[in-house]
Design a protein that fits this description.
Length: about 210
């Protein structure tokens, strides 16, 4: 199943399914960004708007994009704030977003579905203002090495969504190619699996 179709299928239950990765990502995002205030936020792959609601509280404006119309429809139902706009966009194609117009770009649990990190980081660098931040949170590659991929259940059937493995250095190398400096790297464990390998990795980059 194509990634886009898989997410549109998953959108019906994405918010209600048991999903420790989704829940931990929300915690990581809030903990990292809650003390910041931003003028203009661009959210990449917003899905059903789980983080968009929070971003609307810390940003004067939020522009949230995704290529799954099903996921976006859920987000639009849930997040009805005047400072938030949603749009359909494929992140692998040139972004319709002006140069130097965001002071925060946020991307959660999306890049495992995108092979070419260099293109994404180049576009992030282009749309950020000088001093702007890029927060990225992804399934930890240690989990990918063990075969974990985003997946959902329909009855007895599990659908795994196509994914690309990105090593930690793939992210930092892609940032090094741009004027994006690493400000912090954190690994995250959900309360229920503290003794296991980390579930998520997050990066905070700054454009210099
Ligand atoms: C696991 S969901 C994460 C959604 C949301 N960021 C969250 O944390 O709940 C991944 C999202 O990335 C979107 N996505 C994947 N590849 C994409 C692409 N090339 N362009 C735009 N969105 C994409 C999917 O449609 C899906 O909504």
């Amino acid at each position: 199943m194509k990634i886009q179709d898989a997410y549109t299928n998953w959108s019906a239950t994405y918010d209600a399914d048991r999903n420790l990765t989704r829940d931990l990502d929300e915690i990581a995002t809030r903990q990292t960004l809650e003390s910041g205030r931003f003028r203009s936020i661009l959210e990449l792959g917003c899905g059903t708007g789980k983080n968009t609601m929070f971003l609307a509280q810390i940003g004067e404006t939020v522009h949230a994009v995704d290529f799954s119309k099903g996921m976006l429809a859920r987000a639009e139902q849930k997040v009805r704030f005047e400072n938030v706009t949603f749009a359909v966009a494929d992140l692998t194609k040139k972004w319709e977003y002006p140069d130097g117009s965001a002071d925060l770009v946020v991307c959660n649990l999306v890049l495992e579905h995108i092979q070419d990190l260099d293109f994404i980081f180049a576009e992030v660098e282009r749309v950020l203002t000088a001093g702007g931040r890029f927060f990225l949170c992804e399934l930890h590659p240690f989990r990918q090495y063990g075969g974990t991929k985003a997946n959902f259940q329909r009855g007895d059937e599990t659908t795994e969504i196509a994914a690309f493995t990105h090593h930690l250095s793939d992210f930092t190398d892609a940032a090094d190619e741009q004027s994006l400096a690493l400000r912090s790297l954190k690994e995250w464990w959900h309360e229920e699996d503290k003794r296991e390998i980390p579930r998520l990795v997050s990066f905070l980059f700054e454009k210099h």
